[in-house]
Amino acid sequence: MMTMKNYFRKVYTIFILSVVLSPIFAKSQTIGGGQIHGNFQMDAQYYLKDSLIGAPNVPEKLLMNGFANIIYSNGNFNAGIRFESYQNAMLGFDPRYKGNGIPYRFASYTNDGLQVTVGNFYDQFGSGMVFRTYEERSLGYDNAMDGIHVKYKPYKGIELKGLIGNQRFFFDKGVGIVRGFDGNFFINDIFGLDAMKTKYTIGGSFVSKYQPSSDPVYNLPENVGAYAGRLNITRSGFGIMGEYAYKINDPNASNNMIYKHGEGLFVSTSYSQKGLGVILSAKRIDNMDFRSDRNEVGNVLIINYLPALTKQHAYTLTAMYPYGTQPNGEIGYEGSIMYNIKKDSWLGGSYGTKVSVNYSLANSIDKQKLNDTIAIGTDGTLGYKSDFFKMGDKKYFEDFNIEINRKFSKSIKAILTYAYITYNKDIIEGHPGAPTIFANIVVLDISYKFNTTNTLRMELHSLMAKQDEHDWAMCLLEYTIAPKWFFSVADLYNYDNPDTKRRFHYYNAAFGFTKGTNRFALSYGKQRQGITCVGGVCRQVPASNGISLTITSSF
Amino acid sequence: MKNIIKISKLLLLTLVIAFSFFACSKIDEPYKKQQSVIIDTTGVLTGNTITDTIDKRVVLLEDYTGHTCVNCPKAHVKAHELLQKYGNQLVVLAVHQGTFAAPASSGDYTYDFRVLPTVDEWNAVWSITGYPAGLINRTKYNGSFVNAYGSWDGKIASIVTTSPEAIINVKNYYNTTTSNYTTRVNTKFNIALTGNYKLCVCIMEDSIIKPQKNSDPSIGSTPDIIDYVHMHVLRSVVNSTWGTTIGNASIKIGDTFNNSYTLTLKSDWKKDNLSIVAFVYDASDYHVLQAALAPLNNK
User: Among positive and negative, which fits the CA dihedral A429, A45, A56, B63?
Assistant: First the structure.
């Protein structure tokens, strides 16, 4: 009798053969009434030696990351694979990404309200504090599940999800088994209150991971459970949502093997009307590093996601000091106001002006000794006591920023950004002893449109700080001939580095060509050492100097 | 009303299924197990030579550290605790490497404990980016050589009771005529092996008093401990970064290799605080088969 494993292996084999034997790379193709589509990306860099800026030596000279998704859809059925190639992984990405493989493949169907997915999948429960799997290629982050996922709607307004599997670990799988269950209940739908203006949604999640232990030193929990409850209320332009999460004792390498429980609280309110938007959010995280392998550190085998409460800056210098979430303890607040000043007014001008003000703060939590003899965080103990609402004495990050976006005429528009950022490098980058940085940053972004296709854009940046590498300036010029071409040159200059020998120019020149869904971009330049963060998850970016090629395509 | 009863039943059923399916392992004190590892504390060192050889597993812990790394003293304390626990079945080597070990141009941290280029060449393989971090027998755990100090104990405990693939005997000699020190390393394999096996011989110094950054008030003053006692400091690798090949292709049970080295000692090293650390490793994946330590002088 054919086992389930062999059955699915056979299904995948048939699927992959059908993909390989079909002329699919030109455009979407029809197979038995279904459709195949996908996308491809390749990033390669040729590295030049540059020991002055601290660029590591690259014996291979050329490194490349690439992937292609190929998805087959036919009615309620979907199946797909992702081929990945690292020859070898580019600098800044974990070198354990090595070689070629198909780490992601799935098949899924929906029938009478039941959706079944076998193979790899991504999902999120609530805000993600007890479960979120996702992929972020710019970070080299992929904690995809490999197993079984079911989603069922047994009744109007009720959505239930269950899952079980292992997590991706580079081209292998993690040792732990993750089980999860989530329910979403749309109260108005369930009780036939569709006409009611106030809408209520409640939800709950339970996630557990199993990892065997034969540790000779610690009595370790082999099953670590976490649960969360959430409530969401909306009425017209007003909304409030809150979620509380709890994790039982989970001694691991990240928390130095302490047995304290973990907690997370996330609350966010928003209000919007025409021309105005306000968001206020707060969170408290304590000992919430949750992984399917207790021995791992870094961005691998993470089961949950801790929402970031800081603005994701897009400009080079406002993004120079980004915040990375601290899962072992932080309290954070964020407030944002977006306001559109009406056009044809004195302040708004002929086309109106958009103003947004944003403030965020991340601080340590209160931590107190358990008693006089045990130091905070001692392994094999409960670690510490913490007053839930008390702030700790360390500021991790603070960001106050204003952005004014104004169109002056049909040809000219500009964005002016000011940010004041406090950045605790010691904590965020893990550079003990590094000073906290206080940076004033101004960015002016001006676009001039010559006609419907030709646009020139200029960015002028200034960052002033008395710590770290002190002051920076940057200028970028970008010329776009829509929809096919772009050309850009930029220079990032550390003109006030206290070490006068390290006042480097990080210049860059690039051009790109787009035709249909294919895009080619070639650039040459230097990259400064730093970190990059997306949604509070970060990776180190080493210094480099070289020529980069990016090809993206979809069909 | 019917709806409410139906939904309540469904919810109840859902909760029962969810919670019965996912059991939780809540652990109560004691969190640590009673010591079950038997440690040989009788000692086999007599004077400047070894009269007997340790035929038990001796684990090598390399503590990657730096003088401006404020969290590193915590790892030093952990290493000290582990030495007390495992006795002569553990050898600790403090490898000063990376940004935190680089000397400052002025101030308290102008001294340099780095053994260059060896330590950078080593770390090009291990890829340590956050300090402190340690290597346990240069073995990969879940694909990585790098171990946070909180996990050292468990990993050492998991291997310290296993039988060693080789035993190492280190003897040090002082020639009164030439005033030179010589170290002789005798390696005997306990099992048959194929592959390339190398011997690495290092000089280590204890009790060097130099400033160290610190963030933990329970260890000492913050942010600096001016009279910090640096232990197990790697001073030199006697036979190059990756050592000497002692067994290639096929090794039989009982095969023995003898290697001798004349030592070059710098004038500022205190001879009474120096030791020789030797270890044999598999060149294909770097994992250490056995380690040994012998003080240079009688104490």
Answer: positive
Are B231 and B80 contacting, i.e. CB atoms less than 8 angstroms apart? yes
Predicted confidence band at A32 (pLDDT cuts at 50, 70, 90)?
low
Taking CA–CA distances from B32, the nearest residue in chain A reads A218
**Residues facing residue A417 across a β-bridge:** A403, A443
A270 within domain boundaries: yes
Judge whether B159 and B141 are in contact, CB under 8 Å. no
Asked if B162 has any chain A CB less than 8 Å from its own CB, the reply is no
CA–CA separation, B170 and A267 (whole Å) = 63
Q: Which domain range does residue A189 map to?
A: 119-307
Determine, yes or no, domain membership for A264: yes
Among residues A312, A310, A309, A316, which one has the least CA distance to residue A442? A316
B27-59 pLDDT, tens digit per residue, is 888 887 654 332 222 233 333 333 345 678 999
Examine the pLDDT at A94 and tell me if it is beyond 50: yes
Q: Which option is the CATH number for B44-295: 3.40.50.300, 2.60.40.10, 3.40.50.970, 3.40.50.150? A: 2.60.40.10
B55: left (phi > 0), else alpha (psi -120 to 50), else beta? alpha
Which pLDDT tens digit goes with each residue over A219-269? 899 999 999 999 999 999 999 999 999 999 999 878 888 999 999 999 999
Q: Is A311 exposed, middle or buried (0-12, 13-18, 19+ CB in 10 A)?
A: buried
Query: Residues A148-202: pLDDT tens digits?
Result: 999 999 989 999 999 999 999 999 999 899 999 999 999 999 999 989 999 999 9
Closest by Cβ to A432, choosing from B22, B25, B213: B213
* Residues forming beta bridges with residue A540, ordered by sequence position: A531
Q: Give strand ranges (E) for A48-98.
A: 62-74, 77-86
List the 224-253 stretch of B: residues with Cβ below 8 A of A: none
CB B38 within 8 A of CB B161: yes
Distance CA A206, CA A108 (A): 23
CA-CA-CA-CA torsion sign (A427, A429, A431, A436): negative
Contact status, residue A112 vs residue A118, Cβ threshold 8 Å = no
Domain count, chain A: 1
Please report the pLDDT score of residue B257 as a whole number: 82
Any domain includes A286 = yes
B218 touches chain A (CB under 8 A): yes
Contacts of A215 in chain B (CB under 8 A): 33, 154, 157-158
Angle at CA of residue A350, ends A346 and A351, nearest 5°: 115
Contact A225 B153 (CB under 8 A): no
This complex has an ipTM of: 0.71
Residues of A in contact with B158 (CB under 8 A): 214-216
Question: Would A65 be classed as within a structural domain?
Answer: no
pLDDT tens for B244-286 read: 888 776 788 878 888 888 888 888 899 889 999 999 999 889 9
